[in-house]
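sorry for the late reply, my laptop died twice this morning and i had to redo everyting from scratch. anyway the thing you sent over, i finally got around to it. pasting the sequence first so we're on the same page, its 572 residues, then the predicted structure underneath. double check i copied it right bc i was rushing
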Amino acid sequence: MTTSDATTTLGLVTATRAGRTAAGRLAEATAERDVRVYAVADLAQAWRECDEIVCFLAVGATVRLLAPLLGDKRTDPGVVCVDEANRFAVALVGGHAGGANRLARRVADALGATPVITTATDASGTGPLDEIGWPVEGDVAAVTRAMLDGEEVTLAADATWPLPPLPVTVEAAPVEEVVPPAPRVVVSDRIGAGRSRPTVVVRPPSLVIGVGASGGAPAEEILTLVSRALGDAGLAPGSVARLATVDVKAGEPGIVEAARALGVPLITHPADRLARIHVPNPSEVVRNAVGTPSVAEAAALAEAGAGGELVAPKRKSAMATVAVARLRPRGRLAIVGLGPGARDLLTPRAVAELRRSGHVVGLDQYVAQIRDLLRPGTRVIESGLGAEEERARTAVRLAREGHAVALVGSGDAGVYAMAAPALEFADGTFDVAGVPGVTAMLAGAALLGAPLGHDHCAISLSDLHTPWEAIERRVRAAAEADLVVAFYNPRSRGRDRHLSRALGILAERRSPATPVGVVTDAARPGQTVTLSTLGGFDVEPVGMRSIVIVGSTHSHVVAGRFVTPRGYSWQR
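ok and here's the structure:
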C-alpha cells in the first residue's frame, strides 16, 4: 500500500482480534506514513487527529459511531470500513473530498479485498471534477449530475490544457463567448470567468509569481503584495503554480515562508540567466545589488518558459517586488504498452494513463482491447494496419496542441512499435511519459520456461523497412556471439523463407538438439506453445503473431521446459 503524501495520518480502529491482525498487516504495508491504532472507544480521537481512518467494524456500527461526528465533507476525514473476513473495503465517508475512494482501493490492494465504492462518478466511470488535480470552484454537484444524466455540458477554456476525459457535449472558447444557460466547465485562471450557473471553474496551474526582496523582508509583506498583484490583474490565486526568484535569495526567510504559505515550490535562477531576459522595467539599482537588472519580472518569465507572457508587471512595496507571468500550457503524450493481450498482464500504470488521457490514439484492434477501460468523454482516434506514421503524427500533433494523449501499442510500445516513430516527430513543447509493457518475447519466454536466462537478443525478420542483407548480418553476429535469439515477425505469406534462412545460419554454429520454442498468440485466445529442436523444427505453423526463440549452445530442456543456464562458470 503506497501513497504520495508521506505526511498523511492514517488511523486504524479495531475491536476484535481479527481486526487487530488485519490492522497490523495494513500498518506494515503503509510503513512510510504516520499510522496510529485506536480502540473503538477512541474513534472520536481518531476523527480529530487523522486525515484518513480505516475501521475494522461492521458498516452499521461505524455509521452509528460516526453520526455525531459528521461535519462537512470538505473537512471530514475519509473513512473506510473493512469487514471481519477482510473481504470488502467500503468507502463510507468522504468519497472524493476526504480521499475515501482512493483509500478503499489502497486498502483492498493491501489486504486482498474488494473495494466497494458507491460514488456515482466512480460507478459510471466518469472522472470526478474534484479529482482533476487542480483547484475546483463552483457548483460541482450540479454540473457532475448533469454530466451523469447525459445533459448538455459546455467546456470553455482560455487555453488548451491536458485535461482528463470529460463527458462534455460542446466546446466553446474563449470563456467570454455567450453560451446557452446550460451547465458548463470553465478552465481559466481569471476571476469572474464562471459567472453563469451552474458552473464549475477549474483553476489550471498557469501562473508564476516572480519575487524580489530586500534582506529581512517579512513574508506577510510579500504575500500582501502577491494578493494585490493578482487581484488587480483579475487572476485567481488557485492558479499560482510556483514562486521564482534569483538564486542568491534562495534562503531568504520571507520568500521561503511565502512559498510555503501559498503551497507552491520556490524555484531559483542564476542572476546571469535573469540578466539575459528582456523585461519592461529594468533597474540598475537591482543590477548593482544582485547582478541582474530584474528579479521579479525576469524570474517570472524565466520560470514561465518558452511562450510565457508577463500578465502583471512588477509592483513594489517597501521591501519587496512581485510580478506575474502566465506560462504556456504543455500537453502530455503517454506512450503506453498494452502487453501481449491478456488483461491481467496490462500494468496498473498503463490503466492509469489510459484513464487520465483525454485522447487515445492506436491501431483499431489494440483500442478494442482496452475500450472498456476508457472514461466517458475520451476521444478515440483509431486506424488500421499500415497507418502507423499517421497515428504517430496525430498523437504528436494533439500533444503539441496541449492535450493529454495516450498512444497505445501492443507489448511494449518501445519494442518494434509506436514509441520510436512518435518520438522522431516529437519536440520539446510537450511532456512525454513512457509506460512499459510485457513484450511478446517475455510473454512467450515465460510460457516456454526460462530461455532468456542468459544473454539474448531480439531480431525482426521483416524486411519491409530493413534490407534482408542487414538482417542476415545481425543473425550471423548473434550466432557468432552465441546469444539466445528471439525472432519477431518470423514468417508471413510474403516472407515464407526468411525464418528458414535465419535458422540455417544459426545451425551453422549450434547443434541440431538446440531447443527452439514458438509461441503464437501469447496470452490471447487461441494461444499455442510448441517446443522443438533446431534440427526438427517445422516452420509451417509459424505466422506473424508468433515469437520464435532459439537457444544458445548452453540451452537445454529440463522436465519439458526450455532453460538457458544463468551460471557464468563456463565463460573464460
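Confidence is low (pLDDT under 50) at residues 1-6.
thats about all i looked at so far, will dig more tmrw
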